[in-house]
Amino acid sequence: MLDCLLNEKERAFRDEVRDFVKNEIPSQAVRDMDTGNLESGRWFVEKAGALGLLGPRFPAKYGGRDLNWVSDLLANEEVGVLGTSLGCAYAMPSIVGEALNQFGTEKQKMKYLAPTLAGKLYSAEALTEPRGGSDFFGATTTAVEQGDVFILNGEKRFVVGAQDADWFLVYAKSDPNASSHQSISCFIVERSFGVDVQNIYQLMGTRGGGTGRLVFNDVPVPEENLVGQLHNAYAVFNKMMIPERLLSAGGAIGAGRAALEVAARYSTRRKAFGQTIDNFQAISFMVADSAVLIDAAKALSFVAAKQADKGQDARRMVSEAKKVGTENSWEVLNNAMQIMGGIGYTTVYPIERLLRDGRLSMIWTGSNQIMNLLIQHGYYKELDKRAGLTRDVEEDALNPEQSSEKHFG
Ligand SMILES: Cc1cc2nc3c(=O)[nH]c(=O)nc-3n(C[C@H](O)[C@H](O)[C@H](O)COP(=O)(O)OP(=O)(O)OC[C@H]3O[C@@H](n4cnc5c(N)ncnc54)[C@H](O)[C@@H]3O)c2cc1C
């Protein structure tokens, strides 16, 4: 539905990823990840990287395509039809890559970003701690400078790729006495530096990504692996949350789209009371509602991506895209299951897996409650800026003169 807004390059890249997802990814691998027979998305990243499909907005010099945020969003929607585990594997080089591309040294970009985009290195991000994920700046993992290394101690949890990533982007408290926004630093930590994995979680969905707990016990990290300025990972985090949340929206939209297609096709074949169920408005209106939910989410995400492409502050729109993309997708996934009746609840169709996957989208990459925090913050700021610029509609009330009733406590 967005085609009328896309340029040729964006459309071409979207179609390339669409073909890749359609033709190169065996259903058996998707099944194996869901059943626990395969506990890694590395194979997928290797394939995508070999074809130059990862991190399309990064410079070609590092293995990107010199494209833009819109292209990245569209690509993530395509991969999202495979579910959140592969969606996350696909998005990760774009997410950690943002930190390196924006804040990394040339050496870091050549050593980590380029091979990651080529699918030769497998990456992961370690932000969440057992103590909590939403209160990111309350991190308790510590980084203490000792000569030319930082010594990391602490734990991170729910890290996708914990099982076999080659390197982790890790945030740690480097100045415990500073205010929270000036206390954290960001590091590239190779697994071989001594990172320990202590648990691979049994998950409701998003399975097969090797999601686990990382333990750092006196792990030495060379100072050249510090990303950005010491104690200023706030800046890195803010930039990294753009792909983190925008691409979450894209993936969720893809999953909803896929489920709706399966259910809508089913409705044109499945009969009840002597006719196909799409003849019942109760069913076809669920299809209509779902199509609107998907299109609305796509439009909002597109605007957010456009803002990012124009170099504008996209934080509020990206948060809205993440909230609306994931919540609309969730509603669509539920509609799809309802349209399918009992068979949708079985493993004969993939709706149940997409639904299990989709529940996470509202929790991870910043929960939707955290999105609301950011959205209201951005909205109030914009409200202040708009004061006096638009019509004063308060004056259109029938009795605006009763100023004594405009009492604010
Ligand atoms: C399968 C899976 C994969 C994941 N992958 C990764 C990964 O690769 N890397 C990584 O770093 N993390 C990852 N996460 C972690 C995920 O991002 C966090 O779970 C999420 O940010 C929420 O943090 P939490 O679980 O600690 O919940 P908490 O922060 O404890 O929040 C609990 C509840 O309180 C609400 N809440 C908290 N603070 C506020 C507030 N101020 N206002 C309103 N409500 C609030 C939350 O919205 C939530 O509903 C993953 C999680 C899962 C389950």
Précis, in short:
The chain has 409 residues and is α+β, with helices and mostly antiparallel strands. 48% of the residues lie in helices and 14% in strands. The chain contains eleven helices and ten strands.
Which architecture of the largest domain would the CATH scheme give at its second level? Up-down Bundle
Low-confidence stretches: none
State the domain count. Answer: 3
Morphology call:
globular
CATH fourth-tier homologous superfamily of the largest domain: Butyryl-CoA Dehydrogenase, subunit A, domain 3
* Biggest beta sheet summary: 4 strands, mixed
The number of helical runs is 11
Question: H/E element string?
Answer: HHHHHHEEEEEEEEHEEHHHH
Q: Tell me the span between the first and last alpha carbons.
A: 48 Å
Defining key terms:
409 residues; alpha+beta; Butyryl-Coa Dehydrogenase, subunit A, domain 1; Butyryl-CoA Dehydrogenase, subunit A, domain 2; Butyryl-CoA Dehydrogenase, subunit A, domain 3; 3 domains; four-stranded mixed beta sheet; four-stranded antiparallel beta sheet; 11 helices; 48% helix; globular; binds flavin-adenine dinucleotide
Secondary structure blueprint with pairings:
Blueprint: H1 8-23, H2 27-35, H3 42-50, H4 69-80, H5 84-103, H6 106-117, E1 123-126, E2 142-146, E3 149-159, E4 167-173, E5 184-190, E6 196-200, E7 212-222, E8 226-227, H7 233-267, E9 271-272, E10 275-276, H8 281-309, H9 315-340, H10 351-361, H11 368-386
Helix pairs in contact: 1-4, 4-5, 4-7, 5-6, 5-7, 7-8, 7-9, 7-10, 8-9, 9-10, 9-11
